[in-house]
Amino acid sequence: MSGATDAGEGLIERLVSLARSAGADAADAVLIRSTAVGVQVRQGKTEELERSESSDVGLRVFVGGRSAIVSATSLDPSRFEALAEQAIAMARVVPEDRWAGLCDASAPGIFDAAGLELADPTEPDMAALVTRAGIAEAAALAVTGVANSLGASASFGRTEVVLATSRGFTGRYARTSHSVSAAVLAGSGTTMQRDYDGHSVVFLEDLDDPATIGHSAGERAVARMHPTKPKTGRMPVVYDPRVSGSLLGHLAGAINGAAVARGTSFLKDRMGARILREGLHVTDDPRRRRGLRSRPFDGEGVATSALVLVEDGILRSWVLDGRSARQLGLATNGHASRGPSSPPGPSITNLSLSPGALTPAELMADIREGLYITEMMGSAVNGITGDYSRGASGFMIRDGALAEPVAEITVAGNLLPMLAEMTPANDLTFRRGTDAPTIRIDGLTVAGA
Question: Start and end of every Metalloprotease TldD/E C-terminal domain (predicted)?
C-alpha cells in the first residue's frame, strides 16, 4: 500500500467523481496503458520491426440496478464529463441486473504491486531484439535435418493498470514481459514437419538463452519427421508439460463461477467432492513473485491472495468475481478480471497442479503401448457434459520408451473420469502461467488409422 498517486490515478479518480456528480449511484474506472516492441527475423533477415503504444480508459456506472460501460482511447480530461453523461444515459435504458454492483470486498486506499517484482525497469532497444531473434534462428537452422525457417521473434511489452472506484479504492501496477521464440521446418515435401519453442518471462535476466530456444525448436522439428498414425483403440496417454496445462485450463473453465452460476459446468454439483487423485492440489496464486499473471488486486479492487481450488483431490472453491459470488450466495475470492470495454468476470492467474513423485520416465515405464502428446490442435470440449475430443500429435510409447512420431490423430474421453485418473510426474516448472507437470491418463480413446 502506497501513499503516492500518479497522473493516471488522478485522471481516473476524477472520471469516477464526475460520474457520481452526473447522477451515478456508484462507478469505477480503469486505465490500461500498453507499450509493445517486437521483431521477427527469417533467414537471417529482419522482416518485421514493430512498436505500438496505446492508452484506453473504461468507465462503468450504476444507476439503481442498471449499469453501463463506455470506453475511450483519449485521456483528454475535457471529454470526461461527456463520457460520464453518456454512460449514465446508457445505464438508464438497459434492463436491471440484480447481481450487478461494485464489489463489497474492495478496500479504500491506494494499492500498488510492491514486493511482487512485476516490472523490469530495463527496456531493450530494437537492435538487442534483432540480435536475440537472430541467435535463436541461427541455432535452429544449425540442427541437422532442419530445412527451413518459419522465423524467430523477440519482443518486449509493458502494461500499466490503474483502477479506481467510488468506494475509495485506487490501485496501480505495471507488468513487463520479455520473450523469444523460433519455429522451423524439417524434411521436405509431404514429409515436412514443423515445430517450435519459446519462452516468456517478466524479467530479462530470467529469459532462456535464445540459442537454447532455437536448438530446442530444431530438435523438436527433426524428431517429428516421417510420422505415422497409430491404430484406433484405447490406451494410456501421456501429456508433455507443453500441453498438460490444457487439462488445467479445462478444469478452470468448469470451476469458473460464471459457468457454475449459469449451470453450464459439468462440475456444478461437485463442490466438496473428490475430482482428482488423493494428494493432488490445484492452486491459483496471483501473488507469485515475478509471475506471468501476478497482480496485487483484481479487476474489482479486491486484494489478491493464493487460492487452493482443489485440496488433496477435493474441490474446495470456485473462481469468483463479485457478480458470480452474489449469484451463488458466496463471497468473492479476488479473481475478477476486466478490460476497458467489458465488465469484470472470473479469471485465473498463475494456475498450477502439484507434482507427483515419479520422474516422467518412471511414469511411463510400464506402458507397453501408449501415446505421448507434444502438441494439440482444435477443441471439441463440451463444458456441460465434459465430453472431450482434441486433435494431437506426438510419439508412440512402446515398452516404456518414446518411439516413432505420430500425427493427425484424435484423443477423446470425458473430463470427469479424465481428471480423476490424472497421475502427474515430478517435473513441474513455472513457465507458462498455467503450469502442470507431465501427466498420464489411462484408457483414453485414440483415433488414428
Answer: 232-448
